[in-house]
Amino acid sequence: MMNHNVTETSPALLEMRGIVKSFPGVRALKGVDLELRAGEVLALMGENGAGKSTLMKVLGGAHPQDEGTVRIDGQDVSIQNPIDSQRHGIAIIYQEFNLIPALSAYENIFLGREKHDKGFVRKGAEYRHAEQLFERIGVPIDPATPCRELTVAQQQVVEIAKALSVNARIIVMDEPTAALTRHEVEKLYAIIEDLKSQNIGIIYISHRLEEIFKTTDRVMVMRDGEYVGTRNTRELRREDLIEMMVGRKLANEFPKRVSKLGEEKLVARKLNRPGWVRDVSFSVRAGEILGLAGLVGAGRSESVRIVSGADPGTYETIELNGRPLTIRNARDAIEQGICLVSEHRKKEGLVLGLSIRENYGLPNLEFFSKHGFVNRKREDEGFAKFVKSMSIKIPHHEERAMNLSGGNQQKVVLAKWLERNFEVIIFDEPTRGIDVGAKFEIYQIMNDLAQQGKAIIMISSELPEVLGMSDRILVMHEGRITGEIQDVAHATQEQIMELAIR
């Protein structure tokens, strides 16, 4: 994976030395070093809260450092704002794209840097330049297409084109594969290889360990605002990387448990949704974690969203503990004991502008209110129990949900639903965008729920997670169940993939 132009003695394209950054009450960066070579992909790893985002915001000019130096090509540079960063050839592609949906691809690329001629924007020149950029990246996109009509992968290409349009030599990619299909991920890898061949240095941030080992040259790890170390990817084992990130050995990436399966708890027969789900039937037993696997678009999420009332669909029967249910919407499912922990926690799981206490209380107001008034003390005490039992790391209960790490946001989502003591809990991509330490804690919560006799359904695109957590696996392809794996202990990723492409 290492670019043949990059050697151990190659001069650094970018050096950050002794970077310190403090905010009121917290020292976010404690003298961090980073070195990036031209033509390499450097993984920047660490748990949520390790300081990765703060370090990149220093590089991007959003947070000027308190101490330390930044050098490009061996020369000290001053980065006080995003314009300084851009002028020095640095581009940051955030997980939430910075595009205006109504504007065309080329208008987004040159927004704020329009090509002018006597006061008029030279749209033709911008269009042609954008065409050349897309050609250079190797992805055919009509530059006149409004960004709202582009796929997530195409929008990402627009962001990369924007970076190349300012002659960026250093590109930061934050969770670049989070919303991509497997095919789109492979295309992104090809684009990254091409950028490397142009001697562009890439800082790659991701929680998906498989892609770190597939696409990066070196790995830099941070922990608690400090630099831990940098290693060549090819010399690093998965368990070594996890230990560097969490600061301790994890005996197992997935916590062990003894499964005690009871009677069938949930039975769903002939779920249908035109274009998405075709005659899907399944059951899950008390104490069981049922994994749903398959490629993006296979119908996994769509199937469980019918059961949870989140999306419309038809069914022959849905039974809970042998009792037929009528589910027309999410309220029906919730009242009858079925809960969906959505994959879109920021859009569907939380109200980001509200406090975490308020988020916890929202679906539980009937428990905490009387005569139309919320008993804040009872609500606060209820939430405090989950903060302690689930180790939710927060400064106080009034912290806004948007300010929490991904792992702690997911725990708040779980806390608000666990208050209701559901019989069936559906986890859709439960650890997406969450670091390995927090993942282990989420897995432990799932195991505890199963041991309490709850029925757990888990959808995951990460095959090691499906194999590591499931008692039984159903595989889907094009809206149908194409196979069932009962002997999970001896199953392989290849076995799942064979069923997923039938």
Q: Could you explain the architecture of this structure?
A:
Strand 16 and strand 17 form a beta hairpin. Helix 4 crosses helix 5. It is globular, with a radius of gyration of 24 Å. It has 18 helices and 24 strands. The strands form six sheets. Strands 6-9-10-3-11-12 form a six-stranded mixed sheet, sandwiched between helices. A six-stranded mixed sheet has the order 18-21-22-15-23-24, sandwiched between helices. The protein has a four-stranded antiparallel sheet with strand order 2-1-4-5, with helices on one face. It has 502 residues and is an alpha/beta fold. It is 33% helix and 26% strand. It folds into three domains: 12-246, Rossmann fold (3-Layer(aba) Sandwich), CATH 3.40.50; 250-337 and 423-502, P-loop containing nucleotide triphosphate hydrolases (Rossmann fold, 3-Layer(aba) Sandwich), CATH 3.40.50.300; 353-421, no CATH class. Mean pLDDT is 88; it is low at 1-5. The longest helix has 16 residues, at 182-197.
